[in-house]
Amino acid sequence: MKRSVSVLLTVLIFSFVTLNPQPIDAKGFKRYRIKTKKATVDFVDENFGNFGEKCNILFLNEDGSRNLFLRVWRELEPDQTAPALNIVGIRIYGYNRAGNIVYDVDIDDGFKLNHNEPGEWIHQLEAIPKKVKKVTITFSGYYQPE
Per the structure, how many domains does the chain have? Predict the structure, then answer.
């Protein structure tokens, strides 16, 4: 039996703020639509942020289990500088074929990649309902200068 999985990823483009940290408004959204007939969607955004941050979204639909893995990381050269990246929330919606929300997760904790340091954040969501056919992921955050 063939399956079709459609994943829509909403990722904010971050802007550097020189005075006070300011939330990024909705005009900074980047959208991706990934459609596949395979059981796995593996997507890497090499330009998640303005200072070398990358994002990997892996959706596995194998052996009857459906899992979503999120990873955001930054690698810096020894002489490279970067402000702290504060992600204050991550919202995930899953939609059925009719476009109705059937899955809703809010990761309030967020994460932080420290000033002038490489870093990594990983999160796994297990047991995504089978009726989910499309997923949106929204990262909300800002850059905080030293």
Answer: 1
User: Residues of 108-127 as b/e, b for ≥16 C-beta within 10 angstroms?
Assistant: eeebebeeeeebebeeebee
DSSP-assigned states of every residue in 59-107: EEEETTEEEEEEEEEE---TT----EEEEEEEEEEEE-TTS-EEEEEEE
Q: Give the predicted TM-score (pTM) of the model.
A: 0.77
Compute the distance between CA of residue 112 and CA of residue 120 in angstroms, rounded to an integer.
9
Q: What is the CATH number of the domain that holds 38?
A: 2.60.40
Question: Within 10 Å of residue 68's Cβ, how many Cβ atoms?
Answer: 24
3-state helix, strand, coil in the chain (%, to 5): 0, 55, 40
pLDDT per residue over 114-138, tens digit each?
999 999 999 999 988 888 888 888 8
Q: Which of 112, 123, 109 is nearest to 58 (CA)?
A: 123
